[in-house]
Amino acid sequence: MQAPAPPSALSRPAEGLRCLLAPNPSPMTQMGTNTWILGEGDVALIDPGPALPAHLAAILAALAPGERVSRIFVSHAHLDHSGLARPLAEATGAPVLAFGDALAGRSARMQALSAAGLVPGGEGVDADFVPDIALADGERVTGASWAVEALHTPGHFGNHLSFLWQGCAFSGDHVMGWASTLISPPDGDLAEYLASLDRLAAAAPARLFCGHGAPVEDPAARIGELAHHRNARSAQILAALATTPCDIATLVAHLYSDTPAALHPAAARNVLAHLIDLEENNLVSVFHANGAPPRYTTR
Q: Which of 19, 105, 153, 262 falls 20 to 30 Å from 82 in CA-CA distance?
């Protein structure tokens, strides 16, 4: 029998901010999803997390007597962030705010690939997610003791929002300190991810409160590291393809030799994102033969 998940853990990483760590640890979520409670009295909540009754109970228990949740913000429609949004809304009466549903914000390139048959990589898309209120890029929402500004940061997911707050930012899965971000087309888009890194850097947040893991204390340096990592990965792929045409599985075996095999499916989605971007920029070509997996080569 599988052991029950530990209870959600509460911390206070900054004045006016509470963090509840959801009990959903995994290789993709690190210790679990961070649920953020902003302000006091009529509070706002960012990323309710996975649809676990124990986490819902922990959120409600974290409220002081007389407090209520007045807004529920969702960074993006992955189940580990949005799954509890509707149950929490029903329990509190608070509306759910996000950029849009699970298909909102996709680039034209990813829409075309999806229409042509490219399927997501099964990273837990909340296909039924629909917010009560759609937030526009740059829209500001205020409460008595809190205020956030929505910043559209697609790349990991088309409808991904970061939220600016008191000189800091809640970066969802866009920027994390413990790992790089999964980019799985057609939900994810490498070109948009890199552009969104620039947008977040331009906002110059002093700290990043991430969807998973500890806060990032030097956002500019971390954002630079992530951009460098992606550009270096593209260069590695081009170097490998310059030697011989490869399919994605061969590239993953070569580029992720130090990564546990259980994470290779996620690595394959990242490689696909890079290949789509390289093909879009006329740096690689793809060809199909005899029903075998597509192979790629440099142009």
A: 262
Q: How far apart are CA 208 and CA 141, in angstroms?
A: 19
The model's pLDDT over 140-195, given as tens digits with 9 standing for 90+, comes to 999 999 999 999 999 999 999 999 999 999 999 999 999 999 999 999 999 999 99
Which domains, and CATH codes, for the chain?
Answer: 9-217 (3.60.15.10), 218-299 (1.10.10.10)
Whole-angstrom distance, CA of residue 85 vs CA of residue 5: 20
Return the amino acid letter for 41: G
Residues 115 and 113: their CA atoms lie apart, in Å, by 5
137's CB contacts (< 8 A; 6+ apart) are 99, 150, 151, 152
In whole numbers, what is the pLDDT of the chain averaged over residues?
95
What is the maximal distance between C-alpha atoms in the chain? 67
